[in-house]
Amino acid sequence: MLLGRSTVLSAQASFDFVPGRDNPEVTFDARLNGARIYNNGIYWGTSPLKRKTVPGSYALKVELDGYKSAITKVQVLPTAPECTYVLNTPVADTKEVANTGKNRPQGKKLADGTEYSGSTTKASGNLVGLSKELKNYFSGKTIRTGTMREDGVGVAVFGNNDYVISGTLPGSMSEYLAKVKQDGLKIKDVLLTSKYNNVITQNDGWSGIYPRGCHEKMLEMRDNARLITVAFNDNGDYIILSEKEWYSSSSKYNKILEEAVSFYGKALHVHITNKGIVVTCDKGVYYNNVPEIVIEKLANMNNRPVAVKFTDAGSCLMYDASGKYEYFL
Question: Residue 32: what pLDDT?
Answer without folding.
Answer: 73
